[in-house]
């Protein structure tokens, strides 16, 4: 009887955890699509470009020190494509910056999209993602700003402007 209860408990625990998020999977084009984290890029062919970009990037240490404070209480929703050159450049750098700034990775939700910038579950709906990567920063559930495709100054300096409320427009923001 004890074994049966233990098996039922383990089954319930595993099934509840499995329902939280479906991890990114390779689509027919070989691209990751769905929820991802840093570990998602630890497999071929993603590992080669991810590790190289992550290892060789040296964020500005002064900006990182400011980001440690600025990122407190922030949540981030990111969209990237494993097929996209800009995403391959920026996403590893993004992870390195967040790690060096002691960002709590549980506050990052990264979604990998196909070439049409979509996912099977339409995870992109409502986020106005037209270029990747797009990193959207939230404070208290409200969007503070977004980084889109490439830096205006540098990735970490652009992030710092967003999270500290300094004037910032991503490269495609045409609002006045």
Strand order of the largest sheet: 1-2-4-3-5-6
Helix share bin: 25-40%
Strand percentage = 15-25%
- Count of alpha/pi helices: 5
Profile the largest sheet: 6 strands, mixed
Distance between the first and last residues' Cα: 69 Å
User: Radius of gyration over alpha carbons?
Assistant: 18 Å
Helix/strand order: HEEHHEHEEEH
CATH H level: which superfamily?
Glutaredoxin
CATH topology: Glutaredoxin
Please identify the structural class as seen in this structure. alpha+beta
Assembly context of the chains: single chain
Quickly list its features.
36% helix, disordered N terminus, 6-stranded mixed sheet, alpha+beta, 176 residues
Question: What do these coordinates show?
Answer:
The chain is of the alpha+beta class. It has one domain (32-164): 3-Layer(aba) Sandwich (Glutaredoxin), CATH 3.40.30. Helices cover 36% and strands 18% of the residues. It has helices at residues 2-18, 46-56, 61-70, 85-100, 155-164; strands spanning 25-26, 32-36, 74-80, 108-112, 134-139, 142-148. Strand 3 (74-80), helix 4 and strand 4 (108-112) form a beta-alpha-beta unit. Helix 2 packs across helix 4 and helix 3 (61-70) packs parallel to helix 5.
